Amino acid sequence: MPIDTHTKILATIGPSSASKQMIEKLVKAGADAFRFNFSHGTHEEHAERLALVRELSKKYQRDLTVVADLQGPKLRIGTFKTAKVILKKGQKFVLDMVDEDGDETRVCLPHKEIFEVLKVGNRLLLNDGKIELEVLKNKNYKAETVVKIGGELSAHKGVNLPNVKLPINAITEKDKKDLKFALEQGVDWVCLSFVQGIDDLHMARKLIGDKAWIIAKLEKPSAIDELDAIVKEADGIMVARGDLGVECPIQTVPGLQKRIVKACRKYGRPVIVATQMLESMIVNPTPTRAEVSDVATAVFDGADTVMLSAETAAGSYPAEAVTMMHHIISEVESDSSYYSRVQYDKDLSDCDDMADAITYAASEMIDILPNMAAVVTYSASGFTTLSMARERPSRPIIAITLTEEVSRRLGIVWGVKAYVNKKVFKNFTEIEKTARETVKAAKLGKKGEYIVATAGYPIGVQGMTNMIYTIQL
Question: Catalytic residue positions?
Answer without folding.
Answer: 35, 76, 217, 275
